[in-house]
């Protein structure tokens, strides 16, 4: 349950599959175009239900309530061995020369 | 859907745009495919010094020109004796929003404020959104950034998610969408709803702002080295970066050649829901670079101020793996974490430097901020999770969407030339699409300016095109 005044994330459908632009590729035409917006809830609502918000610029938006207090979760990802190898090969070429080195 | 269906809103685009950019484009039209580009560029009525002054008011510009001595030394290992130009980079990440896009945003936001708009909207998934948001914060204007961010499953490209975070950090409202060109439809409806200014990347204001970058880099080379650059390399996507830089260099009286560089994403469809998260670059790639070079007016304004084919002397592509590799090079040899997309030009420079003598100056004209989501580790980790193979080997084996190959050693980095003749012919065909009549002299002259080709080339391309039209099959 999210309360009026909570900062939330909504999701809504902008265009259903049959309404999409004529030029989109087939895999895109098959799915709806979705929209995600954040704002302050204008009345209490449950996650998964239709809710209304007032956005930062004062606009009204309606959509399915996805999360209250949405946060960022992007980071640097998992360790990528190829990047560690890249670092070492660059330093080796700089310090000692190596394959393809014309000098 | 009433009056707001996709096609109905698209049909009103001309009127919506006219009130949202404060510029009547029809007065620059000269009949057929021709229009008066220079008259359009002069329509803001501002000289470059005045533009630089406006940018300074936003804390934008006057970025350092850093000499990459270790990268230069490494490039020289792969060059013939006496070859290997000095590589310099304009550290545009030092702008308040972390990229050169601040230059593109500042003048638009200034104009929006001057013309009395209550806020600014921009449609971009890139650094430009953060730039507009940053300038709006300073100008005290409301701001909405519309992004293509997720695939239909709701999986977000981490670089775009990071840019949304940055826009929100500057107080902007971010409207995020799933994949598709109908972003433009949402954008138009928001313009109608709010009456905000359209801070398009493609207005004269946007490109005029970038002219300061070209002017600055020439002035810095002259002050520090007593001469002009011998080659300038620009990452190319929508074309405004290259166009503005070239025009600024010209205004500074510098005739140095300009090379464009893009990441090769051949084979991936930019509007495909399924392929959206299988690319590791969201800008600086051929998916924008090729169509915008050969058809500049596909942008969100009637006539784009970004017309890169008028200014590029050469166009090269690099693989995703090569650009990631050079991004690592910048970090471990120069102690600078930047990019990755903005380092496409640096990867090109690493190769092109070998063709120039040691005393030549090669300027890479941008860097961009990096961090969570944007960093090459974040991108490659995400690529692997999206089913793309990441390996070390010969970068020629890379296949966009399927396999990213980081080079085994720096000698494997190869800038591949794009045939400019093909791009020129393609621009002419796009400009005359659907026409069956022979264009007049004014149109031919316009197409010569658009492509930097001679009359013979333009006429031959038109002849081939018209013959194609008249073939019975």
Characterize the structure shown.
The complex is a heterodimer of chains A (103) and B (473). Chain A has a four-stranded antiparallel beta barrel. By secondary structure, chain A is of the alpha+beta class. Chain A is elongated. The longest helix of chain A is centred in the last third of the chain and has 16 residues, at 81-96. Chain A has a domain at 1-70: Roll (SH3 type barrels), CATH 2.30.30. Chain A has helices spanning 26-29, 81-96; strands spanning 7-15, 33-41, 50-54, 60-68. Chain B has two domains: 1-8 and 37-418, Rossmann fold (3-Layer(aba) Sandwich); 420-470. In chain B, 44% of the residues lie in helices and 13% in strands. Chain B is built from 18 helices and 13 strands. The model of chain B has no long low-confidence stretch (mean pLDDT 95).
Write the layout of secondary structure elements.
The complex is a heterodimer of chains A (103) and B (473).
Chain A: E1 7-15, H1 26-29, E2 33-41, E3 50-54, E4 60-68, H2 81-96
Antiparallel strand pairs in A: 1-2, 1-4, 2-3, 3-4
Chain B: H1 6-11, H2 13-21, H3 37-42, H4 48-57, E1 65-67, H5 69-76, E2 86-90, H6 101-114, E3 119-123, H7 127-139, E4 142-150, H8 158-169, E5 173-178, H9 183-194, E6 197-198, H10 204-225, E7 231-235, H11 240-251, E8 258-263, H12 286-294, E9 314-318, H13 320-334, H14 344-352, E10 361-364, H15 376-385, E11 389-393, E12 403-407, E13 416-417, H16 420-431, H17 441-451, H18 455-470
Parallel strand pairs in B: 2-10, 3-4, 3-6, 4-5, 7-8, 7-10, 8-9, 11-12
Antiparallel strand pairs in B: 1-2, 9-13
Helix pairs in contact in B: 4-10, 6-7, 6-10, 7-8, 10-11, 13-14
What are the key terms here?
heterodimer; A: 103 residues; alpha+beta; SH3 type barrels; 4-stranded antiparallel β-barrel; 2 helices; 4 strands; elongated; B: 473 residues; alpha/beta; Rossmann fold; 2 domains; 7-stranded mixed beta sheet; 13 strands; 44% helix; 13% strand; globular
The parts of chain B where pLDDT drops under 50 for at least 5 residues are: none
Number of helices of chain A: 2
Oligomeric state: heterodimer
Beta-strand proportion of chain B: 5-15%
- Major sheet strand order of chain B: 1-2-10-7-8-9-13
The proportion of residues in beta strands of chain A is 25-35%
Report the helical percentage of chain B: 40-55%
